[in-house]
Amino acid sequence: MSAGATAEAGRRRRRRGLPLVIGGVVAVGGCAGVVGAMAAGWCANVVLVVGSGLVGGVVWLVTRRVAGRRVVLGLVAVAALCQVPGLTHPPITSTDAYRYVWDGRVQLSGSSPYSHVPLDDALARLRDPVLFPGLSPSERSGVVGPPRVPHDPAAIAALSTDDPRTRINRPRVPTIYPPVAQAYFTAVALFTPWSAGTVGLQVAAAALAVALTALLAVELRRRGRDPRWAALWGWSPIVSLEAGSAAHVDVLAALLIVAAAILATRRKPVLAGLLLGAAASVKLLPLLLLPAFTHRKNLRTPLVAIGTFLASYLPHLLVAGTLVVGFLPGYLTQEGFSDGSSRSAILALLLPPEARQFAAVLLAIALALLAIHRHGREPIAVTCCWLYGAALLITTPTYPWYGLPLIALAVLAGRFEWLAVPLAAYLAYASFGHELRQGLIHLTAALIVTLTITVRHQATASNRFDSLAAALRH
Q: For residue 34, is pLDDT > 80?
């Protein structure tokens, strides 16, 4: 090849890579803009939705125009840059990361976060100015003894109020986080100086988000799909906000869920079950995905998942006894999951509080049975996607970062309509206290999903009819 031809080939490669570079710049700028708007409170959730739409459009253009073998490395590099804006701020959307830091520190000290609350004077030696700016180790909080969570909603609300002396939320109640999450907190705490506060967890969550970007890109390529769609996860302002900034443990759950779905596809049911059980022991919601892995002729994956989940509690059960349930019962009561009074925003548009819980349970059972019936008829990732997304639409939890695993599943399954659900959750989060508005926002997301699924099924049926007609003509 002549020197001129070589130079021309190089120019063509650079031109093909230019959209990826431009897309990366827009994505990083979008993430920085969303994080900055959130930190400053400038129409934060509206900016997030607009920024997510902008990044989504850029990803669509990139997938149409970019080619090359190094695309996965480019995707991952940009995903890493997208996490940087979040790392420049302390946690924005919640104070959960401070509880993570505390739980890890408590375990390293040889105590249990299920047996002690953060304000317990028995753990006063673990206080520092980052977590307890208003309470030194030498001062007494007046809180002593093992935690006791009441059953009365009013008493629970009073007990779980924040305290200005600490950045840890609900400092008078024990932790709610399951054992694998606790192991993660402990591992990060082992390498994080106390003075660094939440930085170690923010960096760890950002690294997990980037790792999941790489996993999605590689798996999409293996399946013959365009790996650049992984940018819908890795370049997402939501992921930048909730991983690099807020350090939410839902990122770890998303990674484990995606890995479990991939291993199930590769006919490794035991490993898939181990990872799914571990995901459930990070955040309980992955238990809802068990029906997607259930088949009457092969129950290994769900049985291993349940066994893994239960086994993860054994060490803590030996140490904390019945206190191992932590604040979970109180949380379910406080957040309205126990009676449906403040959840299920879509059902609330039609039903009174006492009927919502019953309707939600019926819908959940119907979806579980449908998922079992669909086993083998569609990819597991697709089933997991609509099962998880439908669960969020039915229960409409208060906190929008619960939707992080859904973003990853939507990318893996190629069901991008489900991205409307976490976006709607942020708009609803900004409308907290306005039940009608919240219900209409979630209902809009549900309609977007339903309409897209309907159009896709009609197109699939039309293609099958055309193929059959062509076969009959020949």
A: yes
